[in-house]
Write a structure and sequence with these properties.
binds adenosine monophosphate, nine-stranded mixed sheet, 11 helices
């Protein structure tokens, strides 16, 4: 049987793998298909596509957009995106700038707390246009200001902690539209993690195509619950590991996988939309 992991990150956002390393690990896991879903960027997709083609693995170009609706943060996965789409590229460039400014604000907050971390150190470590809190956490560990990543989030970076800075986000309805106009499918990421159940009907009205029912942080009960919700709203179902590389012990890639039949359903919907 063929399987796919549809939620993966690389160094182009807060993952630690290059696209080539990601594909190598996907191969080791025996995956037939992967989707790259970096935060607010599609930059890694070209290299991942080339690496996949070299080993006859199917590749789905994607992204994970950070959005909000009714004061709720929601991550929206876009699949089968046209990575050259100018509207998409312009829009995500703006949110990459937001991310970069937020890094400076978080560093300033840490400086206020007496931690002399420099924004330049975070940017050098991140080396990407879409930096996030994990890069600040890694820089804190690298510069020995803190023992490990978890502690960095617990003490400083988690929502409500002293160096947490809110992020300006695009509206979720706009996110769904943005993905659609770039030829993609819009899927709500890990609803169990962000507790976004209440906003599902609004997003469905806006054209949401599916829900990520299977995710590393979803229990079996949660997955079943979201399968029911997906069925109720006639939504597609996806799943993936949300692997960020070696940032946490062994890489998660392949530990959450969906049968290839799920990918076929996604492709059928994309094809239908093109008619
Ligand atoms: P940001 O997009 O900058 O708000 O950072 C969010 C990212 O940080 C998520 O995608 C995860 O990769 C990571 N993250 C969030 N919470 C934690 C945590 N408690 N420990 C480690 N990583 C986390
Ligand atoms: Fe992340
Ligand atoms: Fe996410
Ligand atoms: Zn993710």
């Amino acid at each position: 049987m063929k399987f796919a992991d549809l939620h993966l990150h690389t160094q182009f956002s807060d993952g630690t793998f290059t696209p080539e390393e990601l594909v190598l690990h996907a191969q080791k896991q025996g995956l037939a298909c992967i989707a790259l879903t970096d935060h607010d960027t599609v930059e890694g997709c070209a290299r991942a596509a080339t690496a996949c083609a070299a080993v006859q693995m199917e590749f789905i170009p994607g992204a994970e957009l950070t959005a909000e609706h009714a004061d709720t943060e929601v991550h929206i996965l876009g699949y089968f995106l046209d990575t050259q789409n100018s509207v998409l590229l312009e829009k995500i460039a703006r949110f990459q700038a937001v991310r970069q400014n937020r890094i400076r604000e978080m560093v300033a907050a840490l400086n206020q707390l007496g931690i002399p971390l420099q924004a330049g150190a975070v940017f050098a470590l991140a080396n990407c246009k879409s930096p996030g809190r994990p890069h600040v956490a890694r820089a804190l560990v690298k510069e020995k200001f803190i023992a490990n990543i978890d502690e960095a989030f617990e003490r400083y970076l988690k929502k409500g902690r002293p160096a947490w800075v809110p992020k300006t986000k695009m509206s979720a309805l706009e996110g769904v539209g943005l993905i659609h106009q770039a030829g993609g499918l819009a899927i709500m990421a890990h609803p169990g993690l962000n507790r976004t159940d209440a906003i599902i009907p609004d997003l469905v009205d806006a054209g949401l195509d599916g829900i990520e029912c299977f995710h590393t942080k979803h229990s079996t009960v949660m997955s079943e619950r979201y399968l029911e919700i997906a069925e109720k709203h006639h939504l597609l179902v996806t799943g993936g590991s949300d692997c960020h590389g070696f940032s946490k012990k062994t890489p998660l890639i392949g530990t959450v996988r969906v049968p290839y039949a799920y990918v076929e359903k996604l492709k059928a919907k994309v094809a239908e939309r093109k008619l």
